[in-house]
Amino acid sequence: MRVAVIGAGKMGQWFTKLFREEGYSVVVSSRTKSKAEALRSEFGVEVARSNMHALDGSDWILLCVSLDSLESVLKDIGSHVRPDQVVMDIGSIKEIPVNLLHKYVEHGVTLGTHPVFGPGAKSLQGQNFVLTPVSDEEKRFASELREWLEKRGTTVSVLSPRNHDELMSLVLGFPHFVGLVAGDTLMNNSNFVDAKAVGGATYKLLLTLAEAVSSEEPKFYSSLHMSLPDMEKIEGLFLSKVEEWLKLVKSKDCAGFSGKMEQVKKRLKELDPTYESAYRAMYRLLDDS
User: Fold this and answer.
1) pTM value > 0.85
2) How many whole angstroms separate alpha carbon 117 and alpha carbon 264?
3) What is the rounded distance in angstroms from the CA atom of residue 91 to the CA atom of residue 159?
């Protein structure tokens, strides 16, 4: 098996390491030659002169580039893909990339994929992975890739590109939004520095989310929020709920606050019967970190 990894950013590096550990031949292409050369030194991969040259002899072509760069890469390589090759992207948004794959790859199989984890993951074991096949040919390959991933301990979901993006608005976009707003709020509080020393588990969890999200690449998060289909709707609902809770606090309505909390607990129990274990899970998450 020979894999071409186009893009040597954090996830390109992660997949290069994965495929080399699998014993596969890997060729890397990157605009930043120093990153590609670093991968050659660390993992013994080949470095292609260009994206087009990376295709030579490759079975899988993995596009680990940003959404902003994807179209230009596909314009470059699309007409050179052979019928027996597979081209996959790994972006967090799927409808736009899948449409671009279909537009520019004249031959070969294409597949939108989304590894729902970051470069800090130690392996595929225990991770979530989404595949978004559209055509029958894509569905056949997705079935093969699903089996390959599941053998390595990955939980695989198969969704339409649109359904994926709707879910990611909630699964990725909303937690990012909450983390960024929480971080913005915390750092503008005069007690922020002192609070870190005395904060309990819930504060530490909130702070971890805020700092983890804020440490990521701003352009990626901006693109994600502007491209996912339901972000404005979800964030608008969140703000309206904030107003409801804030109104109870402002009016010192203890009974109203307690009643609303009971409603939330009841609804959570209906939707997720195991939700009461979350408190213990929070401590486990913090202990693991």
Assistant:
1) no
2) 29
3) 14
